[in-house]
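WARN no homologs supplied; continuing
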Amino acid sequence: MVASCCYCAGAVAIIPMAVIISVLLETPTVTKLAGVSLEVSSDHVEESTGAGARLNDATEVSQKGKKEERMGSGTMFDRIAAVYDVTNKWMSLGLDQHWRKTMVQECLRLEREDKVLDLATGTADVGLLEGERLKQLGDGSAPGESVLGVDPSPEMLRRGVSKVDDRGLAGVVRLVKGDAQDLSSVQGIDAAGVLSEPSVGLADGSVDKISMSFGIRNVPDRARALREMRRVLRPRPTSRVCILEFSLPSAEGFLSGIARNFVLHVVPFIGRIATMGAGAEEYEYLERSIIRFPQPLGFAAELTKAGLPVESITSFAYGAVNLYAATLPP
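OK structure emitted
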């Protein structure tokens, strides 16, 4: 036990310094996939038939004994909402904001009149960036409800609504409780956390751009969520889907090895410290969910199979974070 604590403490002290150095040295790797044939690995598909075959569920049942609760669910994120933003910054050394900005500024290719859907919006960090960018494109104004942020956690959304109000983006960015696997019904929420009655959600072909950061691996049925993205995306050449997600880096190379150890050992340790032990299971789950998530080409194949061919994969932090840029078939 003592040895384990010493190891983690040493990792927290040494690995961040190594990561800072690596960031100064790293040039993100961009893999172009246009025209490349991709196949979903059988390792990631459960026994099923037809186009609706379900991909393996990366979530899991909570060990805390709560009835019908799954790790990765909105209920789980309700429990860690109070520390979510700060732990993100600690675990990424502030780089999470850079990755999100890259997705919004470079991948989405926002246009002035775009309707944007931000899935797994959480406390709305990406939705805020999108709202601000659309206001810039509109010389200080943007059409009403240009950005719709969807998340299953009321507590995360409650905090997000306050951030939207504080940034003067109320009316531009709207947050709702909903499920990425079924966007046909949503619930509005206010800064007090009060949910409205369910209302009609997103119609077919109603949004121009879709973003999702660090949330797709928490969706029990990824294939269903990807099909929903395809359903609500407007059928035009400029429509895009941009997804940021963790991946377990390979052990090859010194810096990739550092990134791998950071995910495996430091992430759950920081989670335990930030939540004073109360969120230990949640952050240990996040580590396991990263391990279970497909490697980049495997997930790109899943997107392509859902009708969202991946144009490119941009890898940050030596493979620990990947940005998938998908378009519609020509």
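The first strand starts at residue 29 and ends at 32.
OK
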